[in-house]
Amino acid sequence: MMKMKKILLNVAFILAATLLGGCDDFFNPDTDVTLDNEDYISEESEMYSGYIGIMTKMQAIGDKVIYLNELRGEMVVPTATAPTELYNLYNYDDDLSGNSYADPSGFYEVINACNDYLRKLKTYEENNSINESHYKALVSSTLRVKTWMFMTIAKIYGEVVWVDKPMTSLRDLSKFDVLNLDETMVACKNLLDIGFDNIDGTYETAWKDWVDPDTELANSEYRRWDMMTPPYYALYAEICLWLGRYQQCINMILNKMNSMYEKTNNQSIAFLRNDMLFSHYNNFFNNETPYDYESASAIMYDYQNRQTNNLLKHFDSDYPNKYWLAPAEVAVERFKDNEFDPLGNQTKDFRMDRTVYDYNGKWVVCKFRPISSPLRAAYRDDVFVYTYRGADLYFMLAEAFNQLGRRAVIDALINVGVSGYISEFDVNEEGTYSGNWYGFTPHWTNASTVYNYSNGTSGIASRKYGDKGIRGTEVSYSGLGSRTFTSDKQNNDEEILKEMMLEMACEGKVYPAMIRMAKRYNDNSFMAKYISEKYETTGNAEDIRSKIMNGDYFIKWNLK
Fold first, then answer.
1. Would you state the pLDDT for residue 40?
2. Which whole-number Å values give the CA distances from 216 to 73, 208, 220, 260, 288, in the listed order?
3. pLDDT, position 5
4. Side-chain half-sphere of 441: how many Cα atoms within 13 Å?
5. Residues 229/110, Cβ–Cβ less than 8 Å
6. Where does the signal peptide begin and end (predicted)?
7. How far is Cα of residue 83 from the mean position of the Cα atoms in its chain?
């Protein structure tokens, strides 16, 4: 076992150094890079190290997803010193040929690595006796990475070249079919349902149990490795949301969360937006690793092994960083605008200082490196990138419930929490709560209820802090007011979107949500409204608004 740990660590370092190199190479991808060693899986330990190779390619594109979405979104603007390529994206230029940011090669390298790995993994499995559960989990994990990558490409470019077998060169893209965004979502669902080698996307990895079973969980360097792979429940739920399968989206998320919450009455538990999670909002990004109770999955880096990205280079203003991207002033004002953000008894949203900061006379995005007591030195650009976090789950649920006409549930998820609707559950004469409310169980609240613990026992208990929703209007230090939700679904979606602009600013997730909502109502107006505002000072707001209203909001690149 120690031998395998040593092999994996050495391979992880070698792959990171070889495939990633320095930060400056990230946007100059070699489009002919493939996993072209026919025998790179020649013993069982290489099944695992081969998968690490896929992870290193994901590391190379993690921050790029943020730039491509944020520059065209409502929050971020390039600074005076930013490269022309960033301005080309910001201005929705039609001709982006040669633009290293817009070049999708890195995305297709991930997909090609997945296809190559699956083929060679199957060949190895056919000729050797291996642990079948490990094989299934590795196949399933690879399918989920591949699916997430296809979805990401579709959301950025509006279409994908559906590559279903290994290529010797990325120039081979012309041999494959091109799918539009809607067709891609259908194909992604089929990929997870049908899978590869009769294995679907549901099997989970267990890196710590596989390679480090003798170490306590808290002390194992592998305990967070599972987070590198997008989880099935979140990935599948997002696909269902895009496809309009709203109840299925809800079921995927609630089945996972309910199952977790009924097994322990701890007040600190993954995703539950209660007093404990609110009190650690600062830690969501200002940690060495993804915050355990907020993270569903994340692309992680370690600068000591030359695993880095360029987030701080772009957003941070301390030397040696370049400060190429900044928050638009109109976006900053939304955190203090009572019309946009019901402030209750506050003068600004509590998330403002965790997102942006007036530093030396200029606005800086401080989400990835807080100005006050920063965890990372300015040169340490190893910020992790959440692929899914707890807030993603809440927002997906809110969107889906809105389409089903459940206003009270949206109010719970965004404003007051499920705890605010505790009276909707059944309660017996002893004061024990049971039943469910549109799929939620009383384990989301601080009510006395039956817990079925993970050790096989059960008992009546209560959680100290129950769910308070995204805004936490019933958490004293939040002090925020509540958003108003009505029978108008489009208006509700816009309110959900406005909340996303505050909660998920600069994470590269708001812009795809805007596209999804615009497509849902065949109406690009509120998307155009919020985005064009940041162009008012540059004089091209009407031009950008016109492009968005015409549906011209995807990056233009000849994917063939």
1. 52
2. 43, 10, 6, 21, 19
3. 54
4. 23
5. no
6. 1-22
7. 27
180's tokens? 């539009």
Q: What pLDDT is attached to residue 50?
A: 87
Q: Please count the residues of the chain.
A: 560
Beta-bridged to residue 451, according to DSSP, are 459
Please give the full DSSP string across 363-425, using - where no structure is assigned. Answer: EEE-SSS-SSS-SS-TT-----EEEEEHHHHHHHHHHHHHHTT-HHHHHIIIII-GGGGGGGS
* 81: its two tokens: 């010193």
Element (H, E) at 276: helix 275-278
pLDDT in tens, 227-244: 899 999 999 999 999 999
Bridge-based pairing state of the strands 159-161 and 426-427: unpaired
Longest CA–CA span in the chain (Å) reads: 71
Residue 460 three-state SS: strand
d(CA 272, CA 403): 23
The amino acid sitting at 138 is: L
Q: Please, which residues bridge with residue 295 across strands?
A: 389
Q: Which residue has the higher pLDDT, 370 or 38?
A: 370
Could you tell me how far CA 551 lies from the centroid of its own chain?
24
The CA distance from 540 to 92, in Å, is 11
Average pLDDT over residues 371-396: 93
Give helix 105-127 / helix 132-157 axis angle, nearest 10°: 160
CB-CB contact of 147 with 162 (8 Å): no
Does residue 9 carry a pLDDT above 60?
no
Nearest-angstrom CA–CA distance, 425 and 410: 17
Question: Which residues, 6 or more positions from 48, have their beta carbon under 8 angstroms from its beta carbon?
Answer: 4, 8, 138, 207, 210, 211
Query: For the chain, where do the domains classified as CATH 1.25.40 start and end?
Result: 1-218+535-560
Output the pLDDT for position 474.
85
- The first and second tokens of residue 52, run together, are 């690490």
For 510-525, the pLDDT digits (tens) are 999 999 999 999 999 9
Structure tokens at 429: 């004469």
The pLDDT of residue 475 is: 82
Measured distance CA(372)–CA(504) in Å, rounded:
20
CATH dotted code for 1-218+535-560: 1.25.40
Angstrom distances, CA of residue 220 to CA of 138, 207, 223, 317, 523: 20, 10, 6, 35, 50
Q: How confident is the model at residue 42 (pLDDT cuts 50, 70, 90)?
A: low
Closest CA to 505 of 335, 264, 257: 335
